[in-house]
Amino acid sequence: MPIIDLHTHSDVAALPKGSVIVLGYFDGVHLGHRALFDEAKKLAAERGVPVCVWTFEKSWKDENTANELTANFEKSTLFAECNIDYEIIESFEDLKDIDGATFFEDSIARKHAPSAVVCGFNFTFGKGAACTADDLGKMAESHGIAYRIVPEQRIEGERVSSSRIRRLIKDGCVEEANLLLASPYSITSIIEHGVQIGRKMGIRTINQRLPRGKVQPKNGVYCCSVTLYKNGGENIYGGVCNIGHRPTVNDNQSDVTIETHIFDFDGEIYGKCATVKLYAMLREEIKFDDIDSLRSAIEQDATRAKELLKNIL
Fold this sequence. Notes:
- The longest helix has 19 residues, at 291-309.
- The chain is α/β, with parallel strands linked by helices.
- The protein starts with a strand and ends with a helix.
- Helix 6 packs antiparallel against helix 7 (174-181).
- It is 30% helix and 27% strand.
- The radius of gyration is 22 Å and the shape is elongated.
- It has nine helices and 14 strands.
């Protein structure tokens, strides 16, 4: 999937004129977003043109205010998995002070010349988010551009939304969150050196930090998979991970790590990148009386995780 990053001055001409453009921020690329993609694909098929996602990047100056389900590169991967043909990325800083009419005229109609645009019912744009999806429809119509406004998607009586999914993840309800995401909640970061408590227990682990801006799951132990990247390829393993400050061996509650025991793996991978995907919370993080009790709990957690992963991996 070609990515046209306008913040880094990619070639706008790379997008074919007459494409169907889907507009939004798409945090999580969840089922509600995928309903927009489905509508766009129908319009594109009628016209024989590609589908393009238009989105934007935020620059988080204060990581404590960030609360994202997906990093920018994760969105791009998910767009490709949804069979989107092109992605356009703009910078929020470049757009935030532009009024809605100017944005549509300059950034959409003139720059990309779409044959149709698609957005969600709650899409807003322009300085101060002053313009709505209905305004987008009126602007598109005035330019002879077809448009579709996709209504909310509901599961179990509640709207599918990024805020709902964030709440579920913070509560440790990753199984329900994953249903709304249509894929497991994932965390990708560099493997760091730890204090090697796991090695001393005979249960080796990898240590990672939550990337800046990502939603932090509730502290606890999770059934997971681990994707390791090497020489342009990837290998996927089952695992069990603890997200939290490891109270049995660490009193610093702000020192949150992702510590994962990978099944059937025994390599040296410090400094490499790995993706941990969460499937189910097994238990909350607790402080054990001693290392032996901790080792026994991890072994039990691993047994449960392996049983769950039989139907997943």
